[in-house]
Amino acid sequence: MENKQQSNGMVKENNALKKKANWSGSLILASLTGAFGSSFLYGYNLSVVNAPAGYIKKFYNETWERRYGFSVDEGTLTLLWSITVSIFAIGGLVGAIIVTPIVKFFGRKCTLVLNNVFAVAAALLMSLSLLAGSFEMLILGRIIMGVDAGISLSALPMYLSEISPKEIRGSLGQVTAIFICIGVFTGQVLGLPEIFGQESRWPFLFGAIIVPSLIQAVILPFLPESPRYLLLEKHNRSKAEKAFQRFLGKDDVSHEIEEVLAESRVQRNTKLVSIVQLLRTRAVRWQIVTVVVTMGCYQLCGLNAIWYYTNNIFSESGINRETIPYVTLSTGGVETLAAVFSGLVIERLGRRPLLIGGFGLMVVFFGVLTVSLTLQNTVHWLPYLSIFCILAIIASFCIGPGGIPFVLTGEFFQQSQRPAAFMIAGTVNWLSNFAVGLLFPFIQAGLQTYCFLVFAGICFAGATYLFFVLPETKNKTFNEISQAFAKRNKVTLEMQEMNHYPGERKSSEGQESNFTSSVDNGETKKGIV
């Protein structure tokens, strides 16, 4: 009995040591640096335009009057401001579309480094627009910043999923969501009147974008490229081994190398598939549908509507308008804390409970919020219930739906399919983002407070789909996840292997032999495709 207890204790201790060893210094630095110059800037640019909105509109009006001799009419000013805000999503869509050939040619890490050119160019254009007297520079800067965000929101999750051990892949993947929340919160803080939220200082809000970009551009080049990219796409075994050694913090990485090579043998070759090929592949049909659903719900779940209503709800609660910007910081704080909590528990609870539970809680709180907003003029304490519902909806979003869709996209697909999958996910993400910005004002005008029932319905539909379709991916290899979908895709394991590349099934044994030979020599052979 004592021996059994000692044995169990040793197993637990070894597991704890193994888990601790997974978090190497290089892995932590790569994830933090990558996210700070990427997803942080995405979150920052979502919130940074809110505080100086009045000053920017005044700048538009003054510029128009100086050029044409009369003030801009209200309709044109509203149109210019709407373009300024929504064109960020158009740039994001462009970035999501062009990311596949970029990550193929330059690699994941180098794509993140080079992407800073867009961020720095955008920051200079936007921060100098007031000095140059050109609102076109601000609009152009917003679309370029969108391109940066579209590239980074695909390249960063791809990079993180490929450098992390499967035991902590979910936690590391949540770094993307955590830094989005930190970026939103930072934009709120810097937009306070005491900092840059003044008429003469608002350009500094956009100039601050340069800081994370330069930090990433300086640090990230000294960290390794994705070892999976080096091994499967560049066929360089020696560099892949060195990358694994640095990221995992150990010398013996033979097990990890063999695991990746096993995936390559299943794939038969390492040629990247196109979007059309991916969509025609039966073995990943339900994975694609699941990514489309999760990414669509990520944008269409109503969080943007929450931001729209926040100031009005706080005002109805009796909070002074001068105090509202400071109270709004609570939303950013809750968002960040919830995302950190999700990152800490995702490897314990799994993806399914957090994602389905997050959408489920949003359905409940959207329903309560609808009731409280509708009746808030009849009961004096209902506005405070509305505030609680707002914070609860934000927290529910961030514990699961706010970050796990990016994690799943990296986990569902093999190496050669991943860039095309992220292009699909990014396209759905940015099109949904644009649709919300375009349609929400009409939904809000037509339904008033009942508009939240639309979002509750979307969350309910998403949760229901995921409950029946989504398998748990925690601690599973890419091949194991593919096998979990095999029955629903109506393919056997052998068919799954053949279906990775429709029309390219012949000579698989020779390709596999050539591939193994090439990676052993650490170089690319011409016969490899």
Automatic annotation (TrEMBL):
Keyword line: Membrane, Transmembrane, Transmembrane helix, Transport
GO cellular component, one term: plasma membrane
UniProt GO molecular function: D-glucose transmembrane transporter activity
Bias (Polar residues) ranges: 510-521
Ranges of residues in domain Major facilitator superfamily (MFS) profile: 31-474
InterPro entries named in the record: GLUT, MFS_dom, MFS_sugar_transport-like, MFS_trans_sf, Sugar/inositol_transpt, Sugar_transporter_CS
GO terms (BP aspect): D-glucose import; dehydroascorbic acid transport
Domain of life: Eukaryota
Record field: transmembrane: 21-42, 79-100, 112-133, 139-160, 172-190, 202-223, 288-309, 324-346, 353-375, 381-408, 420-441, 447-470
Membrane-topology descriptor: Multi-pass membrane protein
Keyword Nucleotide-binding appears in the UniProt entry: no
Pfam families for the chain: Sugar_tr
Gene3D superfamilies, sorted: MFS general substrate transporter like domains
Protein location: Membrane
Region span, Disordered: 501-529
Protein name: GTR9 protein
Species of origin: Sylvia borin (Garden warbler)
Organism phylogeny: Eukaryota, Metazoa, Chordata, Craniata, Vertebrata
Gene: Slc2a9_0
